[in-house]
Amino acid sequence: MTQRQWIAILDFGSQYTQLIARRIRESKVYCEIIPHDIPGEELRSRGPAGVVLSGGPESVYGEGVPHPDPKIFYLGLPVLGICYGVQLMGHYLDGKVTHGDTREYGYATIQADTDSELFTGLPSDLTVWMSHGDELSEAPSGFEVVARSGNGLIAAITNSEQRMYGVQFHPEVVHTPRGLDILQNYLYNICGCTAD
Fold first, then answer.
1. Most exposed residue of 21, 25, 64, 93, measured as fewest CB within 10 angstroms of its CB?
2. Chain centre to alpha carbon of residue 182
3. Rounded to 5 degrees, what angle do the CA atoms 90, 79, 180 make?
4. Catalytically annotated residue among 58, 104, 135, 172
5. Is 110 exposed, middle or buried (0-12, 13-18, 19+ CB in 10 A)?
6. pTM exceeding the 0.90 threshold for the entire prediction
7. Does residue 26 carry a catalytic annotation?
8. What is the pLDDT of residues 68-124, one digit of tens each?
9. Neighbours of 145 (CB within 10 A)
10. Residue 172 catalytic?
């Protein structure tokens, strides 16, 4: 009997964590929400097809805020960081996270590189839902910026070789009309899930 493909969602306290799970399950892929601080080796032993880092209300620089085991970035698994999740990627992989001058909240239009695996088959102009104070102001080494918001801020990054991806917006909410397509690009094209 073959093991079921599944996606691990590391929960960093986002109000949308359950919604991320719902969207993945709507895409006919099994997933589990698990504690954000699961040891990397334990996560590897459970054999997920990919790892999603949920958003969260905190700043990566805050005291006592949730942080992952840094080993999760070196397991060779496809990782998708959402909002606080992409900021964690920047924090741990030598990018730069800064406190934004203005909080981005609500609808925004981004310009996306449709050659990126995340945005395959989508138009380059996308409406998305933003909800963040801090921002990824410098992508980590080896990452490419594949989307920017109308005011020039980083909206998405990829490192195809390391199979790491991050978005500053929330693809899981209905306010991001093509968000499910973005998640499915991650699930099907990047993680190789077969919607079983």
1. 64
2. 10
3. 110
4. 172
5. buried
6. yes
7. no
8. 999 999 999 999 999 999 999 999 999 999 986 556 677 999 999 999 999 999 999
9. 16
10. yes
